[in-house]
Design goal:
Elements (H helix, E strand, L loop, with lengths): L6 E11 L9 E7 L24 E3 L1 H12 L5 E5 L9 H9 L3 E6 L13 E4 L12 H10 L4 E8 L2 H13 L5 E5 L16 H17 L5 E3 L3 H6 L6
Parallel strand pairs: 2-4, 4-5, 5-6, 6-7, 7-8, 8-9
Antiparallel strand pairs: 1-2, 1-3
Helix pairs in contact: 1-2
This protein binds iron/sulfur cluster (SF4).
């Protein structure tokens, strides 16, 4: 099966809690797609990015994805989180319509490098532009296209911070979009290699970065920002499917 309605799925799992950002703690089923137009230096999901793992990605119809979400959730309509990779490169419109008709809600997490009309149908659009430490370059015209087409959705910014340069960059981004809630998150400098989700996280190092980030935000009196950890990393390290 391969056409423009096929969703390339790396994994579907849950229900579990959303581990980060505006919906932290909320029960959700994750649909993680395969393929990404970025190659962030610290990507923690390379199994869903690198085409070397393409054979592990399942081409699925919206009906099949919906059936698996319903089976996992026991039919209870909850939040479905579309993640990746970059889920924006997949055709999610039909799945969102199908899920909404059954009471499910949808949040998309994307870097904002591809704008799709179906963003308007989302319940939450999490735009996560990648800071300098990623070695990626944001195309702000496309990023703003994402905001424009996603106007029907609640839109938030989530920015991963590794160092002072990332922090200053995040301040600039937040100043550019003052109407968007902004969530800051300390980066994990010990992401798993794609084939090994048992790789140990330097949690103390991540915690130290979080403490530095909190101090930085308070020193600047940046009271509009919210600083959150990656809860799933604190609880389960690099383990997948949780
Ligand atoms: S955008 Fe996300 S999934 Fe893609 S390479 Fe960067 S961190 Fe990984």
């Amino acid at each position: 099966m391969s056409d423009d309605t096929t969703i390339r799925v790396s994994e579907i799992f849950g229900p579990t809690i959303q581990g980060e950002g505006a919906l932290i703690g909320m029960p959700t089923v994750f649909v993680r797609t395969g393929g990404c137009d970025y190659r962030c230096s610290w990507c923690d999901s390379m199994h869903a990015v690198d085409s070397a793992y393409r054979e592990t990605w399942n081409p699925m119809s919206a009906e099949d994805v919906m059936a698996e979400v319903e089976q996992l959730s026991g039919g209870a309509p909850l939040m479905v989180t579309l993640s990746g990779g970059n889920p924006a490169i997949q055709p999610f419109g039909p799945l969102i319509a199908m899920g909404h008709a059954r009471g499910y809600r949808f949040a998309l997490e994307t870097q904002g490098s591809v704008a799709r009309n179906w963003f308007a149908d989302l319940d939450m659009l999490v735009l996560s532009p990648k800071p300098p430490s990623s070695d990626m370059q944001v195309d702000w015209d496309i990023f703003e296209d994402c905001m424009r087409v996603g106007q029907g959705a609640e839109t938030v910014l989530k920015i991963v911070i590794f160092d002072e340069a990332d922090y200053q960059w995040a301040r600039d981004v937040a100043a550019r979009y003052p109407d968007l809630p902004v969530y800051l998150q300390p980066g994990n400098h010990t992401p798993p290699p794609p084939e090994d989700d048992t790789a140990v996280v330097d949690q103390e190092g991540v915690d130290a970065r979080m403490r530095w980030l909190v101090d930085r935000v308070m020193d600047d009196k940046w009271y509009g920002a919210r600083v959150l950890p990656q809860l799933h990393v604190m609880l389960w390290g690099n383990k997948r499917g949780v």
